[in-house]
Amino acid sequence: MADTETSPPTNVLIVGVGGQGVIMVSKVLAALCQLHGLQVKQSEVHGMAKRGGSVFSHVRFGAQVWSPIIPHGETDILVALEWSEGLRWLDAMRRDSGTFIADTQQIVPPIAFRDRRPGARSGYAPQSPAAVLEMVGTGFALDATRVAAGLGNTRIANTVLLGALSTALPFPVEGWISVLRDFVPPHTVAVNLKAFQAGRDWVESGSRPAEEAARPAGARVAVAARGHRLEITEAWCKGCDICVKMCPERCLRLDERGLAELANPAACTGCRVCEWLCPDFAVRVLDGLGQPVA
Amino acid sequence: MDTLSLDTFDIRAYLREDLLPHFMCPGCGHGIALRALLWAVHERGIPKDRLAVVCGIGCSGRVGAYIDANTYHTTHGRPLAFATGLALARPDLEVVVITGDGDCLAIGGNHLIHACRRNLNMTCLMLNNEIYGMTGGQVSPTTGGGRLTSTTPYGNAEPTFDACALAIAAGAGFVGRGMTLQLPALKTLIGEGLAHPGFSFIEAISDCTEIFGRKNDLGSAPEIILRQKSGMRPDTYGNIVDRPFQAKAMRIGVLGRNDRPEYGAAYRAAVAARIAP
Amino acid sequence: MHMSTRQNLQGNHACALAAIAAGCRFYGGYPITPSSEIAERMSLELPRVGGVFIQMEDEIASMGAVIGASMGGVKAMTATSGPGFSLKQENLGYAAMTEIPCVIVNVMRGGPSTGLPTRPAQGDIMQTRWGTHGDHPIIVLTPSSVREIYAQTIRAFNLSEVLRTPVILLYDETIGHLVETVDLPDPATIERADRKWATGPREGFRPYADPGDGIPAMARPGDGYRSHTTGLTHAEHGFPTQNPADVDRVMHRLLGKFDQHRDLIDSFEALHTDDAEVLVVAIGIAARAAGRAVRQARAAGMRAGLFRPVTLWPFPEDSFREHAARASTVLVVEMNAGQLSLEIERLCAQPGKVARLTRFTGEPIGPAEILATIQERARHGHA
Ligand code: SF4
Ligand code: SF4
User: Fold this and answer.
1) Cβ(C152)–Cβ(C139) below 8 Å
2) Which residue of C has its CA nearest to B66?
């Protein structure tokens, strides 16, 4: 008993928004702890499965764990699958010794608009990764979504972060890999293992993002050949690819940030299919003077 | 169609722009359906101040909040009940209900039946994405046979509900089905619904890309939306506007017209006939 | 000169006539014993004053339609009884949350479930307070005569308008089906209150901002505000919020919005309470029997009194405490297994002070048994 009282549990807080795989990360960690004979407690808040709903999961493990809730300010490792969610939970971390691992990907959640007045700008966290890393003991801000996109599937960004997390905990890498194998669908094992390794490599190579996290801003207006203009409001584009695939002239593409852009203005006929089918109202065909066309 | 407004339609004039981007998932068809509705509202020249949008609960229920009009986010399955009171009390308003397949056909099914039967002047736009998206992808009355959902892990064995057939049988004044893929056609259909003096029921085939699509391996958002048509692959696909729809299972377009008396007018007439002036 | 009219009127009909007089112009109903006379009378009266009656497909829809009509700016009501009242709870909570004025009459019958449909009971005392989920403000008025039904129905509309809240009119089957001779007031003398409508520019209009008295002005559709109404927890701008600080602030305003208006809300009747040793507390038909028992007790030299809350919720607790301070026994008489007793016990917080006389057989409690209990307690108190 004396032993358990002298060794408090390790506290890992995993946060993100609906659909990102927060729960998967916490389940893998919890299973791994169990494999190592540790007691583990996991508690989560989710329910609005939609994109944008806050999701968080507490994982506590050690020789003896009583409460499933991490006391405020005692999070040893904060894993954020979405940038502003990470920032929101910063003060849950231990002031000096905590580790912060975050994807710099930004999904503007509804809560960013909570105090809006007509015309007000989004209240999305303005801090840059560099400024945030200044504030924490150990911090890793990696563009996990872009790494995952490089592997062909942005949905495995959570596994990239899992790889990064694995470097911060004392479990052997083989254990992580075998648990991960059990948790992902069989046909995605290979790509998940790659993503896991990419996350480890990123931490071990000591990379730090120097630049401001990619933030979609205002509208990008392209002038097309026939005198009309195509306006893409990047802050509203979710990169669904519908406009790209539906354009009869094939003149749109997703840029390296996954946002729509007019790649071949000369071919654009101004037919407005992209405008009509964009579920996010991000595309407008304007006339030569920048006015909406009839 | 002589009353159609020929002004330029810019959807932003009808949106609460400061609330955007909306919180629907990437590729979610509800945004496209919303465009169709607002375009139709624009064409019919309905002033925003006179437009009252009543929604239920679910992803569809959240759509209304983005409209710059009088918007009401009510309780699960009940928007038609709220709208009935509103439309009777305020015949000067243009009442539009936005609902979903679960909201309208499961928990709110009884209200739909009686709204059709009553034929009170309003337009009900049901966004059908075959799923309860907000709660994490449970089976709905319109989920296709064999589909995987979070509550049909062995495939859906329940028969699929044809909402339009129900609406016609229950006596709705105007019934139609459109799909988000054919946006201009859907817009025209909704416009006819708005113009119809009675209860108009319009089912918009929408898509849940992130939850239903993922669960059933339906591919990317453009692949899913194209499946509405005929399963053509995006890379062989041409002009979506001009080709007629050739659905195998579902008919689209105007499916039912029933020019019987509008309830509000019928009520007033019945009263007037018996109360001496 | 005021023109009042004298007539023999049933309680439920008095309720309907009062609603019309109060300016109610929409009724969304569903048939249920013993409230149906209200719907029937409203279906007859409303068209005569340009109003609309509709019988909806179910109880849930009737509550929804009532709220919908009121959202449109028309005073609206419905009436029901136990099982129907249970079904209305979700939408009732919506009206409380979105602060849409409306009046709901619950003519109580024996429960639970289908219970005793034609028999009187007072089993919904707690359901009117806590029937819908979550903390919420609610006003419940409980008349005990036909004349009082008329007055309290008008008051229910006025309170609901002025305070932007659902108001429940709660009475038992006996009162609802009671026929009494009443003098109805001249409609011209009736005070009618209307909700505060938003005026001024749309720019900067915040539909749920506290103007100081806790009651925001309502935006009427068509007036150009184009605001949003949601049952989700919403901040002052009317759109949802989950931010704990916002939720705390807006919920405090909502839950405390009656605090400044208790003088308007609280109402009760006190009979011989000044020096009462045994204080009887009762509502509805039970209070009428209790009143007679108290007078008989007084005639027999016992110091008995009656405290009858007319506003049941929020309970007029300050007044009750004053009137109960000198009593050695508070006797709660109610037609249920003991609901009002819970509130009275909470307020007295003195072991042995509160006695209960309860019944749930579908029969009213008569003056004789109340008198007997008073006698017993009075003796007890002297001993
Ligand atoms: S307007 Fe037509 S041609 Fe131009 S980008 Fe859009 S879809 Fe392509
Ligand atoms: S359709 Fe809209 S949201 Fe989708 S990629 Fe194109 S611009 Fe972005």
Assistant:
1) no
2) C228
Per-residue pLDDT tens digits for A259-285: 999 999 999 999 999 999 999 999 999
Q: A48: pLDDT confidence band, cut at 50, 70 and 90?
A: low
Please, are residues B76 and B49 in contact by the beta-carbon 8 Å criterion?
no
A252 CA distance to ligand 2 middle (Å): 10
Lowest mean pLDDT among A64-73, B199-208, C71-80, C122-131: A64-73
* Residue A226 three-state SS: coil
Task: Give the C-alpha distances (Å, rounded to integers) separating B197 from A219, B185, C356.
Answer: 41, 20, 59
Number of domains in chain A: 2
In a domain, C251, yes or no: no
Q: What is the pLDDT of residues C234-280, one digit of tens each?
A: 999 999 998 899 999 999 999 999 999 999 999 999 999 999 999 99
Residue nearest to atom 1 of ligand 1 (CA): A270
Delineate the domains of chain B, giving CATH numbers in brackets.
28-275 (3.40.50.970)
**Which residues lie with the beta carbon below 6 Å from any ligand 2 atom?**
A 232, 237-243, 260, 278, 280, 282-283
Q: Going by C-beta distance under 8 Å and a sequence separation of 6 or more, which residues neighbour residue B116?
A: B166, B167, B170, B171, B172, B199, B201
Q: How far apart are CA B62 and CA C230, in angstroms?
A: 10
Which residue's CA is minimally distant from atom 3 of ligand 2?
A237
Gap from C241 CA to chain A (nearest CA, Å): 6
CATH code at position A225: 3.30.70.20
Residue B6: its chain A contacts at CB < 8 A? 294
Whether A292 is in a domain gets the answer no
Classify residue A282: in a domain, yes or no: yes
- Chain A: nearest CA to B169, how far in angstroms? 32
Question: Structural domain of residue A233, as residue ranges?
Answer: 219-286
Asked if C178 and C285 sit in the same domain, the reply is no
If you average pLDDT over every residue of chain A, what do you get? 83
Answer whether the bond into residue C367 is a cis peptide, omega within 30°: no
pLDDT, residue A134, reads 75
Q: What is the CATH number of the domain that holds A42?
A: 3.40.920.10
Q: Compute the average pLDDT of residues C142-156.
A: 97
- Please name the residue of chain A whose CA is at the shortest distance from the CA of residue C241: A114
Q: Is C244 on the interface with A (CB under 8 A)?
A: no
C-alpha A239 to ligand 1 mean position (Å): 16
Closest by Cα among C185, C239, B34 to A114: C239
| Domain extent at residue C26 | 5-189
Strand-strand pairing, A10-17 and A54-62: antiparallel
Domain boundary among A156, A174, A204: A204
- Nearest atom, ligand 2, residue A281 CA: 2
The whole-angstrom separation of Cα C341 and Cα C332 is 6
Does A1 fall in a domain? Answer: no
Picking from C203, C204, C235, the nearest residue to A114 by CB comes out as C235
| Cα separation, A37 vs A172, whole angstroms | 14
Distance from C-alpha of B219 to C-alpha of B213, rounded to nearest angstrom:
7
As a whole number, the mean pLDDT across chain C is 95
Contacting residues for C376 by C-beta, under 8 A, at least 6 apart? none
A116 vs B7, B18, B225: nearest CB = B18
> Encoding tokens for residue C157?
């509309």
**CATH number, domain with residue C183:** 3.40.50.970
B124-152: b (≥16 Cβ within 10 Å) or e: bbbbbbbbbbbbbbbbbbbbeeebbbeeb
Q: Do C62 and C22 meet the contact criterion of CB atoms below 8 Å apart?
A: no
Which ipTM value was assigned to this complex? 0.96
**What's the confidence (pLDDT) of residue B183?**
93
Q: Are A40 and A34 in contact (CB under 8 A)?
A: yes
pLDDT at C383 over 60: no
